[in-house]
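S.,

Sequence below, as promised.
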Amino acid sequence: MNNFDQPIDRRNTDSIRWNRYGKDIIPLWVADMDFRSPPCVVEALHKRVEHGVYGYTHEPNDLKEKLVDYIYQQFNWKINKDWIVFIPSVVSGLYSAASNFVKNDETILVPRPVYHHLRWAPQKALRDFFEIDLICENNRIYLNESSLLSYKKKNVKLLMFCNPHNPGGTVYSKKELEGIASFCVKNKILICSDEIHAGMVLGDKKHIPIASISSEISKQTITLMSLNKTFNFPGLGTAWAISENKDLRESISKGIGTIIPDTQIFGYITTLAALDKGEPWRKDLLDYLDKNRKLVQEKIIPIKDLKLYTTEASYLAWISYEKLKNLDLCELFLQYGVAVQPGSMFNKEKHFRLNFATQSNILNEALNRMAKAIKIEKNKTPQ
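The prediction came back faster than expected:
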């Protein structure tokens, strides 16, 4: 059994998460975890470091075959190894798709709220885009056919999709994916699907890649995946794009090796190690995250002025404070020693995202500080 309660001091490791704020601030903002990577990953890195030569590299010969097996085992999706293209990160894939799949006079659909790079990618590419508000039912936010019909732009070419959803934590059902896929096939809209949290589904939910829904949608979808989040080595890079469509694979590859760096040696090594021996660690991790998810529910749900959306995957809680009209909770929490990610990052004000991938005692202290902050300041400020 892996010990995720083990305290780990990250303040002297040039950590973005832990160095952004003062030493008395508990940082629950940026999306990486406070847990050591699996022992198999650490051992593989040690072994390669001890070799002493770190020259230019190519992909390991058997990596694609292993990914084909892994994706079938995890998601019941049969793919061909020729559908796989290695890229340095999921983020670079998002920007490549926005730039290379869409012409200057075409439009991109972007959900709201969503991980900011899905929105920034069209902006950086100087492409027109239209934001579609997710619907909310039973505290669960998602995209459906009705919300897709809200767009008012012509020449729509691409949908930027995120499943499991960041920041909302939604895991789309097969029926929901079928509706989105059907809409995109009917309207000849390509899909760029960010599925980086696919390996972090909590409880009895199952991740279903949207490209696996039908042969029609498979041909007009590029799926972006990585093990970086699941096994907590985001600083080492390595991701891959999957598409049955050769033209999409070639488009996503434009610029790799020039303006976009090649995948580097340690990224390949960590990915291989996680594929080969990381599954027991991943299962233990999900059990621990589920415990932390329940702690967040226990502390947040009783606070009537907050609304906790249903978290079905990963370690990111999405919370509304729209009832507290005269308070900026993100700034307030900093005053009480907790840093969260403001909803403005996802183009949704009066919300915040909370990272609960830390030791349970740290999380509990942070949640207590947040509850105290609201209780004290609400009494001071008329609502």
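The first strand starts at residue 26 and ends at 28.

Coffee later?
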